[in-house]
């Protein structure tokens, strides 16, 4: 079903046209997290030490993906994309804000995964052609060629839309299983689990638990804003909620733990810890995993970016309301290719990645708090689909913008910035989840008070 009634088009998927199974949904979310970026995140939080990093990983994963399950339910219930759904809380025109945020962050994640995969390709080019690996003099050539090749893969992967995503995830998850088992065996043949648990990073590089939670939250919450883009293709509630929650957590714990123990294991083996060397390619090379490991890293990048690019394309379609999803996918893929080159010219990849994560955590949390409270509390899980395109309808607010949602978002972002400078919060539980609660309460109260006054 697609309705058009004054402003844009609402591509609601009717129940009869939904064929995504429990396994498809589970595999989609396992594949979304079982990739290079998750491995890299595990390597980054290794700076906490194993126990602190593991605790932060489990807590952040469970909380974040409960929110994912809730957002996924919204897609199942309505058949609408994630950014279309934000029209109800932010207004038909106000939804431009979350759409821009989503497009930027998923283009960013696609660039992150592409960069890591291109680094792996530089190792392959070294083995095949003798080119220097990235990070060594002359190694930029292999990286640039890798970025171009990966971008071609991504264009091919998204060319068939949702069907291609399902196919890629089904193939990718098999490769991931093989690779993770192999990686785990190699790590524990090199270093004992006791040594990994006992290892502590140098004091000057140590990360606090709060910083780790914020890093992980920024990574995990990105998927919450894309949940409906996939759950709208299933007609069974548990596929949207249970499968999404379990799949995302399995992928997260699986690959982040591999990244964590591989990074610590490498630090112990070399007697040196450098967070800049936490990417899968460098670790795999130092552990002697060789050619096949690089191939798997490249392929798993494609599985993750199939989801990233689909979500970015959906956001762009909601913003423009004139171009098709296929055209949007091509546009965001080409933009992501350009963004991938930034770390070559701006700073180290880790520096760019850290700034990117902090920005995501700052803007995403409030957005999520607002649209979840609007659907589950204020609207009681009932949205009027026809009004999603109706000028002067109930989601029009003032000139198409719900200024209370915008105000809540702005105040919450300011709270995030402030809390990052409060050690009692920033160093222990982090600012991200606190700010989500603040946005939920503030938006709910403001909307209730306004409704009573009217």
TrEMBL record:
> What's the protein's topology in the membrane?
Multi-pass membrane protein
A GO molecular function held by the record: cytosine transmembrane transporter activity
Species this chain originates from: Secundilactobacillus similis DSM 23365 = JCM 2765
**Protein name in the entry:** Purine-cytosine permease related protein
Q: Sorted alphabetically, which keywords does the UniProt record give?
A: Membrane, Transmembrane, Transmembrane helix, Transport
Q: Which family would the database say this protein is a member of?
A: Belongs to the purine-cytosine permease (2.A.39) family.
Segments spanning the bilayer are 39-68, 106-126, 138-159, 171-191, 211-231, 243-268, 288-311, 323-346, 352-378, 399-419, 425-446
The organism's place on the tree of life at top rank:
Bacteria
Q: What is the lineage of its organism?
A: Bacteria, Bacillati, Bacillota, Bacilli, Lactobacillales
Question: What Gene Ontology cellular-component terms does the record carry?
Answer: plasma membrane
The subcellular localization recorded is: Membrane
Q: What is its main location?
A: membrane
């Amino acid at each position: 079903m697609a309705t058009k009634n004054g402003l844009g088009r609402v591509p609601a998927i009717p129940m009869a046209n939904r064929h995504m199974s429990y396994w498809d949904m589970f595999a989609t979310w396992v594949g979304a997290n079982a990739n290079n970026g998750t491995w890299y995140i595990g390597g980054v939080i290794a700076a906490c030490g194993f126990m602190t990093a593991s605790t932060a990983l489990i807590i952040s994963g469970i909380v974040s993906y409960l929110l994912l399950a809730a957002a996924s339910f919204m897609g199942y219930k309505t058949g609408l994309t994630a950014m279309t759904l934000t029209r109800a809380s932010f207004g038909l025109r106000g939804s431009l804000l979350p759409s821009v945020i989503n497009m930027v962050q998923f283009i960013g994640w696609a660039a992150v995964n592409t960069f890591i995969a291109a680094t792996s390709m530089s190792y392959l080019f070294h083995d095949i052609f003798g080119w220097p690996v990235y990070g060594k003099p002359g190694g930029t050539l292999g990286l640039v060629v890798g970025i171009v090749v990966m971008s071609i893969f991504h264009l091919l992967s998204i060319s068939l839309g949702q069907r291609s995503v399902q196919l890629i995830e089904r193939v990718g998850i098999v490769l991931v299983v093989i690779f993770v088992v192999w990686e785990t065996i190699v790590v524990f043949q090199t270093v004992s689990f006791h040594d990994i648990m006992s290892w502590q990073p140098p004091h000057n590089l140590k990360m606090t638990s709060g910083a780790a939670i914020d890093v992980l939250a920024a990574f995990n919450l990105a998927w919450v804003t894309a949940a409906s883009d996939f759950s709208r293709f299933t007609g069974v509630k548990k596929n949207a909620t249970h499968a999404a929650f379990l799949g995302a957590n399995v992928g997260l714990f699986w690959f982040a733990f591999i990244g964590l123990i591989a990074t610590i294991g490498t630090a112990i083996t070399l007697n040196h810890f450098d967070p800049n060397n936490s990417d899968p390619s460098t670790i795999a090379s130092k552990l002697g995993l060789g050619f096949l490991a690089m191939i798997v890293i490249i392929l798993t990048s494609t599985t993750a970016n199939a989801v990233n690019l689909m979500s970015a394309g959906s956001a762009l379609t909601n913003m423009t309301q004139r171009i098709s999803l296929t055209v949007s996918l091509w546009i965001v893929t080409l933009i992501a290719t350009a963004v991938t080159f930034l770390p070559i010219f701006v700073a180290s990849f880790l520096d760019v990645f850290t700034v990117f994560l902090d920005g995501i955590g700052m803007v995403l949390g409030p957005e999520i708090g607002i649209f979840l409270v609007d659907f589950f509390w204020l609207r009681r899980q009932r949205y009027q689909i026809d009004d999603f395109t109706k000028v002067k309808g109930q989601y029009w607010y003032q000139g198409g913008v719900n200024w209370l949602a915008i105000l809540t978002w702005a105040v919450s972002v300011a709270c995030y910035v402030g809390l990052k400078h409060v050690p009692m919060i920033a160093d222990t539980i982090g600012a991200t989840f606190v700010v989500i609660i603040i946005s939920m309460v503030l938006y709910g109260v403001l909307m209730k008070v306004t409704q009573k006054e009217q």
